[in-house]
Amino acid sequence: MTGSIIRTTTAAAVGCATVATIAALAAPAAAAGTRVGIDPGISFGLATNYGTGCSYAIDGIVDDPVTPVVFYDNSVPFAVANPSGSLAQAHWTPATPGPHRLQIWQRHAGAADVFPYVDIQVGTGLPTGSGCAVPG
């Protein structure tokens, strides 16, 4: 009797997995940015690692390797980049201290816009050549 229950449970699990796989493959693909990140490099500070006048690499992870990606700082576009695979990159140099919301957007027709973001705090930067000191 136990063997019969295990076979029935296994068959049901396999059936559900098959239906889920077919549904996922049948769903229309839409371009979208899925994640945004910022690399502080060798910048350093007490309150934040990001400073004005210093340059940072911004990574946008996307699911369309062809459609250009727009990068935003506090809702103002500052760069457009073509992705290489699932990664689009831009360089960002903050001009003002304070809170910044970095976002990406990749156009996709027929679906709601998605704007993944990361919030960071920017201090006054002192470029050191290969990095940035952010005192205070």
Backbone CA Rg: 22 Å
Average pLDDT level: 81
Question: Biggest β-sheet, characterized?
Answer: 4 strands, antiparallel
Order of strands across the biggest sheet?
A: 5-4-7-8
Cα separation of the termini: 71 Å
Q: How many β-strands, per DSSP? A: 10
Number of DSSP helical runs = 1
User: What order do the helices and strands follow?
Assistant: HEEEEEEEEEE
Approximately how much helix is present in the residues? 10-25%
Q: Low-confidence spans: pLDDT under 50, at least 5 residues?
A: 3-29
Structural shape: elongated
The assigned structural class equals alpha+beta
Proportion of residues in extended strands: 35-45%
Set out the fold topology:
Layout: H1 2-26, E1 33-39, E2 44-45, E3 56-62, E4 69-73, E5 76-81, E6 87-92, E7 98-106, E8 117-122, E9 126-127, E10 132-134
Parallel strand pairs: 2-10
Antiparallel strand pairs: 1-3, 3-6, 4-5, 4-7, 7-8, 9-10
Task: Offer a concise description of the structure.
With 136 residues, this protein is an alpha+beta fold. It is 18% helix and 39% strand.
Your description of this structure?
With 136 residues, the chain is an alpha+beta fold. It has one helix spanning 2-26; strands at residues 33-39, 44-45, 56-62, 69-73, 76-81, 87-92, 98-106, 117-122, 126-127, 132-134. Strands 5-4-7-8 form a 4-stranded antiparallel β-sheet, with no helix packed on it. It has a 3-stranded antiparallel β-sheet with strand order 1-3-6, with no helix packed on it. The model is unreliable at 3-29 (pLDDT under 50).
